[in-house]
Structures are given as C-alpha cells and as structure tokens.
Design a protein that fits this description.
Blueprint lengths: L14 H16 L9 H8 L3 H7 L4 H19 L8 H19 L3 H5 L8 H21 L7 H23 L6 H20 L3 H13 L1
C-alpha cells in the first residue's frame, strides 16, 4: 500500500486574513459575473467556508460584501497610476496604462459591474467609491505633470481623458479585446496629448505644460 500523504497542519486565520480570503473569493466571482448573479453561497463555496461564516464577516449581506469588494478593486486600480516620477511623462503614463489594462483584462466581463455601475446593487456609496478612483487617478496624473494648482480647464481635460480611458476599456472588452492591449495603450497616450493640445489653444497653463511635455518626450 502507498502511504497516505501527511495532512497539512490546520492554521486558524486571523480576522484580517479571513476577511481578505473572502474578498478575494468575491472578486474572483465578480470578475466574471455581475453582482446580481453572485450569491453568498457562491462566495462561501469559492472560499471553502460556510455561509454563516460569510455573514459573520459581512453581516450586511451581499450589499456589504459587494461594496467591500468594490473598495478592494478600487484600491488596486488607484495603484495602477502610482508610478515613480522618473523619466519622460508619456513613458510613465504608458506603464500606468499597462497596469490598468491588465486589471481590465483579468476582470474581463465583470469590469463593468465592478467599476462602471449598471448594477441593481449600485448605491450612492458604490458610486462614490468609483468616483474616488477617477479623482485619485486625476490627482496622480496632475502630480506627474508637476502641476500643484491646476486651472479649471486643465482639471477638466484630465478628468475627461480618464473617462475616455474607462469608456475605451469597456468597448475593448465588448469587441473581444481588439486591438491589442499595446495598441490600445499607445492610442490612449496619443489621445492624452491630443486633448491637451486642444485645451492648450484656450488655456495658457496647459499651453506651457504641453510645450514642456513634448520637449521631454
């Protein structure tokens, strides 16, 4: 007879570890299914725990779990734009977009449900979480631009471009992830320069910034 494999020692997870485990399981499900299609039983099964344990950590049920998963995804997306301020700006922006599009690719059809609303469980809190990602991305981009006090037109331009990135990502998923992620990234970077150029014709601050940007890159 073949000796049976040794049973690994059981280790009780800490509260934070268990919560992270449940969030990871939930995100894995939300990545490929809309929140409406995911039940607490599904999350419990994916995490290898009981349904009561899920309720223990998320007594508010599915809504609380969805919002917690959304915050976790939002934090990951915010970190996509956390790029060292070294080298040409457009190169830094390309690296940030690479991380962003990788996140979109990995979460596939659940990206819309997780970060763009359109869900029956959407609330003012989930909307605020998603908007927080956009504002954080705008702050990071303006920081990379070296602008401490952006004018209204420059702020609006950066926020518009971030919205365009989100829309392009959703269309990219709908179109079977064509063109390639690299092509999409390059096009979005070119779009960024293009919208800055339009604003520069009306805004001296953006005009000066664009001159520095094109000289560096």
């Amino acid at each position: 007879m073949t000796p049976s494999a040794a049973t690994p020692a059981y280790r009780r997870l800490s509260v934070e570890e268990r919560r992270s485990q449940l969030l990871e399981a939930a995100l894995g499900l939300f990545a490929h299914r809309t929140p409406e299609e995911v039940s607490l039983d599904d999350v419990a099964e994916a995490a290898g725990v009981s349904r009561p344990l899920v309720y223990r950590y998320f007594p508010g049920g599915k809504q609380q779990l969805y919002e917690a998963a959304l915050r976790s995804a939002a934090e990951e997306l915010e970190q996509c734009f956390d790029e060292p301020r070294e080298g040409p700006l457009l190169t830094r922006l390309s690296r940030a977009l690479d991380r962003y599009l990788t996140f979109v690719d990995q979460h596939d059809t659940g990206f819309s449900a997780l970060l763009q609303g359109g869900s029956v469980v959407e609330t003012s809190r989930t909307t605020a979480i998603v908007d927080g990602v956009r504002r954080a991305a705008a702050r990071r981009i303006l920081s990379h631009l070296g602008v401490a006090d952006p004018g209204r037109l420059l702020r609006m331009t950066v926020r518009m471009w971030i919205t365009a990135v989100e829309a392009a990502s959703l269309i990219w998923l709908d179109d079977g992830k064509e063109p390639s992620a690299d092509e999409l990234r390059d096009w979005l970077v070119e779009q960024f320069v293009a919208v800055l150029s339009v604003t520069a014709s009306r805004d001296p601050q953006t005009s000066a910034l664009l001159g520095t940007l094109t000289a560096d890159d």
